[in-house]
Amino acid sequence: MKTIIVTGGAGYIGSHTLIELLEKTDFNIVSIDNFSNSDKNTYTRVSKITNKLFETIELDLCDKNALTKALNKYESIVGVIHFAAFKTVPESVSLPLKYYNNNLTSLINLLDYCKEKNINNFIFSSSCSVYGNADKLPVTEETPLKKAESSYAHTKQIGEEIINYFAPSVSSFKAIILRYFNPVGAHISGENGELPISKPNNLVPIITQTASGKNNLTVFGNDYDTVDGTCIRDYIHVSDIADAHVKALIYLIESKSSEKVSVFNLGTGTGVSVLQAIKSFEKMNNLTLNYTIGDRRPGDVIAVYANNEKAKSILKWEPKLNIDDMMLSAWKWQQNLNKGLTN
Ligand code: WQD
Fold first, then answer.
1. What local confidence, expressed as pLDDT, does residue 133 receive?
2. In what order do the strands lie in the sheet with 121-127?
């Protein structure tokens, strides 16, 4: 049976991608995770949603011997989707070497294993943060990358470069790099979503925790040169991101790609401000959110949103959910978290 390895499958985007893979393909799915930033109960929720079983391996991808030993038992691995990485931007600013070591060693070990075992289809989880403070919006895949604002973003820039130099050295190897904009929201069932292991830094979990009385939202600056003074982002539903991974995998495996490495933006193409996101949350969930306006957050780009035409035309991918759907699903998930229904 053809096997797909999903690293970081217990994580936020990884687990939603497991759901889409299990529901839309017949591959044998194997998830690798070391639970450094995820919870193994997530696997139970994925099986409950899909009513499907899949294999799981607990290991650190930085341990090449352990990786080799674990994967050698699979006869026909045809692809790898690589999510596993540290991704907390503020932590990456204070602990850069932790990020360079983990995010790059794990990638190199995986690529090395792919070469050894003739695994020729590789999908890399990248981020809109590789663009830095882009001069022109919306950003396309050809937009020049500016200086990364954090070592997290830098590990994604370096990771893309490693793949660009590695791919031509292995004759049949092809890769797709997916640059996510801001993944938010939760599975439509309310049974899976973002599960911050520690205090979240990103907006939507802070909104839903604030609405639950578990956090206090501060809007980081309302004096930017934007429609309402707050920063603009391209929020995209995590299930739309997950769907893009299935389409990218099929595109690679069916050898439709003529390029050794292809890059795709995964965004809606619509910029939404922080205050607009808050208003959507309040409208969709019929509640009033308490928040304060604070100082700007260092490192924040004023605005970034995607030109997603390439993914739409080549991968035949279309984001289906809008900011209202994202905020409705995020709140449904938070309410289940509050009730302890997620264990
Ligand atoms: C969004 C907006 C904040 C929290 C990061 C990573 C990116 C990707 C997504 C991994 C900004 C504002 C936030 C708060 C606020 N991660 N905000 N109060 O920084 O756009 O992107 O997460 O791939 O790589 O860089 O996301 O959610 O932190 O911020 O006002 O308490 O919300 O200033 O304008 P960001 P975010």
1. 85
2. 55-58, 28-33, 3-7, 77-82, 121-127, 174-180, 261-266
Instruction: Output the pLDDT for position 343.
Output: 64
Nearest-5° angle of CA 94, CA 97, CA 102? 115
Integer Cα distance of 187 and 207 in angstroms: 17
Provide the token pair at 237.
């539903």
Give the percent of the chain with pLDDT over 70. Answer: 99
At residue 328 the predicted structure's pLDDT band, cuts being 50, 70 and 90, is: very high
Q: Is residue 206 a contact partner of residue 297, using CB atoms and an 8 Å limit?
A: no
Query: Within the chain, what is the greatest distance between any pair of CA atoms?
Result: 57
Question: CB-based contacts of 65: which residues, under 8 Å, 6+ apart?
Answer: none
In whole angstroms, how far apart are CA 121 and each of 41, 70, 261, 301? Answer: 29, 19, 10, 33
The residue contributing the CA closest to ligand 1 atom 7 is 129
* pLDDT of 341 strictly over 80: no
Tokens 């490192």 appear where?
A: 299
- Summarize pLDDT for 271-312 with one digit per residue, the tens: 999 999 999 999 999 999 999 999 999 888 899 999 999 999
pTM above 0.90, yes or no: yes
- % of residues, the chain, pLDDT over 90: 93
**107 contacts 167 by C-beta, under 8 angstroms:** no
Burial (0-12, 13-18, 19+ Cβ within 10 Å), 225: exposed
Q: How far is the CA of 203 from the centre of ligand 1 (A)?
A: 6
Q: Among 155, 160, 202, 214, which is best to mutate for testing ligand 1, by the most ligand atoms less than 8 A from CB? A: 202
The per-residue pLDDT for range 111-163, each reduced to its tens digit, is 999 999 999 999 999 999 999 888 999 999 999 999 998 999 999 999 999 99
CA distance 152 to 88: 7
Is 222 touching ligand 1 by the criterion CB < 6 Å? no
Question: What does DSSP say about strands 232-233 and 272-273: parallel, antiparallel, or unpaired?
Answer: antiparallel
